[in-house]
Design the sequence.
């Protein structure tokens, strides 16, 4: 299952809106919407933050549900 599916299903199970999830997670509505549509992938930190709010988890790594994008440090 892709992250977009995990996110959408967990949000529907919790019966919370995009706006509510954004408020609880501190992540913008626009970003969450793009994650659910599969247009962009969140960083591992962001994915973990969303999962924590939704009370779910993901399997990370090669061949898993989710392979996080690389987080860039300032100056790279």
Sequence:
């Amino acid at each position: 299952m892709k992250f977009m599916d995990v996110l959408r299903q967990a949000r529907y199970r919790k019966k919370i809106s995009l706006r509510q999830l954004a408020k609880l997670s501190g992540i913008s509505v626009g970003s969450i919407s793009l994650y659910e549509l599969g247009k962009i992938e969140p960083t591992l930190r962001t994915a973990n933050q969303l999962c924590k709010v939704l009370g779910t988890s993901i399997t990370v790594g090669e061949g898993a549900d989710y392979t996080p994008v690389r987080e860039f440090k300032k100056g790279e």
In short: The chain has a mean pLDDT of 83. The CA atoms of residues 4 and 75 lie 30 Å apart.
